[in-house]
Fold this protein.
Amino acid sequence: AAAADEARTLRETLIRQKAEIEQMQRSNEQIRMRLEALQGDFSIRVADQEAEIRVRKEACEQSFVEAERLSQELRQAEQANKLLKSQNLDLQYHLNAYGIPVLSGSDFERNLLERAKIGQSRFFPAILPAMPGQDPVPIVLRGDLSAFHLASLLSFLANTNLFGVLTVLGQNSAAKLFIEEGALRLVAWNDRESLCSIPNLLVESDLLTEDEVATYREEKLYDLEVVMRLLYEGRLERDTLRACLLEYTHLIVTQLFEQEEGTFFLQQGTILFDKQLLFRLSITDLLLRTAAHVDQKQRQPQV
């Protein structure tokens, strides 16, 4: 009996150990499969990293090529800027000749006096840039009168407190309006033959005779040049000339309001002009007065 019990115990122990061995074999198989999976994953990652390194190496090589190309383009741009600067200077000369001055710079006043001495005339003072060093004076706003009427444009400038010289170009004429703090300070145009020119206005106001303004007509002076000549020659006082310029402004703006085609641009800056001749005409008051004038004109019976 004892031998049978011992045999049975040994048999059970053998069965148990055999089961444990099988379990260990299964665990080893799982470990082996997991190790193979990890090896495969590692190989894939190594391949991906090698591919990424190759891509980055190619990108670095391309970057060097691109840097060289950009450096070459920069040198070409610098040469183009020098050429553009030269063309701008030439453009300034022609614009000044047409009466659209854009000259600026530290030697502006000296250049202005030199041009005056050699007889180069302009219908409006040249523009001084708002920020030193700007050459030419930049254009901050431009447009077409067919899309943006002058009255709406002036109202916009007054409400936004934009300042500078507004140039209005028609088919055969150019007008300039110096705007500051929502008001017109000086206005002129390059039409010497206009009925509302300064010489005609002075004659109609009995301030001068036709014979007295004949010299200015013969010299083909612009309106503001006539004003400065009258001032320097002592023929009229500043207050009188400023009043004439104010009335002259009303006449010009009224005609400009009737202009439906043309272009405009605004250069932000100030002007070199006798400050005691500058007036202050509120744009809002001007628009109200012009609207009333137009309404009265429309109400008049047509003959």
Observations:
- Confidence is low (pLDDT under 50) at residues 96-121.
